Amino acid sequence: MLDAPLALQPVPLAPEISLHLVVGPLGLFDLTGGEFHSDTPPPFWAFVWAGGQALARYLLDHPEEAAGRRVLDLATGSGVAAIAAARAGAAEVAAADIDPAAVAAAHRNAAANDVVLRQHLDEPGLVLAGDVYYSPTVAPQITAQLRAFRRNGASVLVGDPGRGYFPERLFDLITEYVVPVPESLEETGELRTGVWRMR
Could you tell me the pTM of the whole model? Predict the structure, then answer.
């Protein structure tokens, strides 16, 4: 369990959505005693990351991307993109993450925003992935998953703030946002973040 206070707070770039987020100037590894344990994912879900914020803003401003579609938010974290898809009129939305605590957080946050997320979703028409290209180990796995969804006919949107492992050659840039982020998390107060569509 997370040993830090959480509070329902509006998302900086998408204040229509509120999430249970960590309170105070804490970074990701402040919540893990400064250590990373591969068997226990750090609590990514306790923060709202730039890529998810950008996807949420884009979907709220362009609801036609999600309206009436079956949407899967991959590596959901806090669930911000999934919640935005539901708000945009998606037929069904599921939040998936390797960390069960993240899935639980996404469902908690969805309830706080009066939307419902499903546990599972077969054959999505739209796949969302925010801030997933953060490590050289994770990047190829995520790319393989996203390409499989794309081959099966799904549209794929990725929010990425230039993490360094993003395979730009596979994507087209749709739009960019300057996203407010906590300095304790990113060592800067804002990140230019793209929303990209997989080719």
Answer: 0.94
